[in-house]
Amino acid sequence: MKLILKWLLSAVALLCVAYLYSGVEVRSFGAALIAALLIGLCNAIVRPVLIVLTLPVTILTLGLFIFVINALMFWAASGIAGSGFVVHGFWAALIGSVLYSIISLVIESLTGRLLLGK
C-alpha cells in the first residue's frame, strides 16, 4: 500500500513540475503514472551503475555531477515514455529533475507527517 501511495504521489509531483515549468509536458494523469514508474525504475536500476562509473568525475566536481546523472535519468524516462511525457532538451531535464526532487521531498515530508500523525 505504501509503495502505491508513493507512486501516486510521484505522479502528482510530476504533474506539478509540468504545471510550473514549460520545458516538461505531461499530457494526462495516466502518462504521469507511467512516467513516474519509469523514473523510479531508471533511478533504481541505471542510476547506481552510472554513479559508480562516474565516481572520479563526481569527486572532481564535488558531487555536482550527480545533477547531470539525475537529469539524464529524467530525460531517459521521457524518451522511453513516449508522447505522454515530453522533456524538451537537457537543460529542461536538469531543471525538471531538480523541481521534481524538491516537490517530491515536500510531498513525502507532508504525507509522512500525516501518516505518522505528527
From TrEMBL:
<feature type="transmembrane region" description="Helical">
    <location>
        <begin position="28"/>
        <end position="46"/>
    </location>
</feature>
<feature type="transmembrane region" description="Helical">
    <location>
        <begin position="89"/>
        <end position="116"/>
    </location>
</feature>
<keyword id="KW-1133">Transmembrane helix</keyword>
<feature type="transmembrane region" description="Helical">
    <location>
        <begin position="53"/>
        <end position="77"/>
    </location>
</feature>
<keyword id="KW-0472">Membrane</keyword>
<dbReference type="Pfam" id="PF04020">
    <property type="entry name" value="Phage_holin_4_2"/>
</dbReference>
<protein>
    <submittedName>
        <fullName>Phage holin family protein</fullName>
    </submittedName>
</protein>
<dbReference type="InterPro" id="IPR007165">
    <property type="entry name" value="Phage_holin_4_2"/>
</dbReference>
<keyword id="KW-0812">Transmembrane</keyword>
